[in-house]
Amino acid sequence: MKVALVSLLLLVAGAGAFAPHTKSKAVRRAPPVRCTVKSLADVAAGNPLIAGAARTIEFTKKNLTPELAPPPSMAELEKYVKAAQEGGPEAEDVQTAGKLIYAVMCEQVTLYDQDQAGCMTPSSIDYTDPSSFQDDEAFKSRLKYVYNYGITMLGQGLISEGDLKEAVLGRLAAKCGKEGKDFDDWLEMA
After folding, report:
1. For residue 11, what are the CA distances in angstroms to 4, 87, 177?
2. pLDDT tens across 140-159, in order?
């Protein structure tokens, strides 16, 4: 269990949905996470699981442009972190933390782009017109990165297979108007 907690912290500490270093209409890579004293992550420092979840919240909030609301799944992650910090059973629930963090990552990649300053901006993708993103290699690269990230989390026991499948199909593939094998083929998943 301790290895899984450390793995989650390491995965989350330096990653976000914008990690591929590709360029398209907007620069889509994230700067390194910069935590400050008295941040949520510092408050949760005694528990790597909660610290990883708190860093995800902090990173997302810090990098949203002022006019943007956080991803919808962030409210559930914040509720989880608060309950865990208060000593609830959430403090030991690795897979729930992984599921909630992964949900935020999926929404980051589908709802936002990232500008050159590292701030998240509204996505330029028009999901109502698949031809607008069908051949967008930078967008596909971001989706593939988040998909592979989830597979890595699964291999480390940080998310269940069912939760990963639900997130990939429901938050990534469905957003693009695709299903299972069609989504895998489009992203050229090996």
Report:
1. 10, 23, 29
2. 999 999 999 999 999 999 99
Segment 23-45 shows an average pLDDT of: 40
Q: Is 181 exposed, middle or buried (0-12, 13-18, 19+ CB in 10 A)?
A: exposed
Q: Any idea what DSSP says for residue 46?
A: T
Whose tokens are 């790597």? That residue is 48
d(CA 107, CA 28): 14
Structure tokens at 9: 């912290």
Rg (CA), the chain: 16
143: part of which helix (H) or strand (E)?
helix 137-155
- Beta-carbon contacts of 81 under 8 Å, excluding residues fewer than 6 positions away, are 40, 44, 50, 53, 54, 57
* pTM confidence score: 0.78
